[in-house]
Design a protein that fits this description.
The protein contains eight helices and eight strands, in the order βαβαβαβααβαββαβα. With 216 residues, the protein is of the alpha/beta class. Strand 1, helix 1 and strand 2 form a beta-alpha-beta unit. The protein is globular.
Length: 216
């Protein structure tokens, strides 16, 4: 059974993937959020948890070396647009420097497959978050080799994820308040947690079967 190491594994994407494929892989989750890591471990007792930030190269390398994964899923990121706009330095530390640490560590340890989780906001970006994820994508594609396969899986808005608009809207409804909209003309690309997990599994299978880097 292959071993998968997920940065930010206690988040929505990581936990959803673990839930769907817990019988197919051995999982390790790496995250700075102790509370969420402990909650993940209580839900899925068989997984390993490692505390650390992707900005800390030595901690990341140490965790990866202890696991020796076959596949790394890089899901850790600063994800909220408003937060990124107000904190561009921190966004760069996490989304750019942290992603570079993932590349360096995975290359140093010869991890066969590395899947980077990106966003539709990296397409023609107009925000700090979008720009930072676009740079992450380009770094992953440049790092690709036949020994260490790097690819990108772009996501839209996962329903009921942390900070998702749906829990916010439901809260407004419970309080009998009007729904807050950015614009009536705005469209949102949304899919379920199960669909997100299946798309990620597809990216893993596709990455294993082809030699060229890709954005899915």
């Amino acid at each position: 059974m292959k071993k998968i190491f997920i940065t930010g594994g206690s988040g929505t994407v990581g936990s959803s993937f673990i839930k769907e494929y817990r019988n197919d892989y051995l999982f390790s989750s790496y995250s700075r959020n102790e509370k969420m890591q402990v909650a993940l471990k209580r839900t899925f007792n068989e997984i390993e948890i490692h505390l650390g930030a992707i900005e800390d190269y030595e901690a990341l390398l140490r965790a990866l070396r202890s696991v020796e994964p076959d596949i790394v899923i890089h899901a850790a990121a600063l994800k909220h647009i408003d937060t990124g706009e107000k904190n561009p330095i921190e966004a760069s530390k996490i989304n750019i420097n942290g992603s570079l640490n993932v590349i360096k560590a995975c290359t140093a340890l010869n991890v066969p497959q590395v899947i980077g989780i990106s966003t539709d906001k990296a397409c023609c970006p107009d925000s700090v978050y979008g720009y930072s994820k676009l740079l992450m994508e380009k770094m992953f594609l440049q790092a690709h080799s036949l020994r260490n396969k790097f690819c990108i899986c772009r996501f839209g808005n996962v329903t009921y994820s942390h900070g998702s608009v749906l829990p916010y809207w439901l809260g407004l409804l419970r309080e009998k308040k009007d729904l807050s909209l950015t614009s009536k003309k705005m469209n949102r690309l949304m899919f379920s947690r199960k669909e997100a997990a299946r798309l990620l599994e597809y990216a893993i299978q596709k990455s294993a079967s082809i030699d060229q880097p890709f954005v899915l």
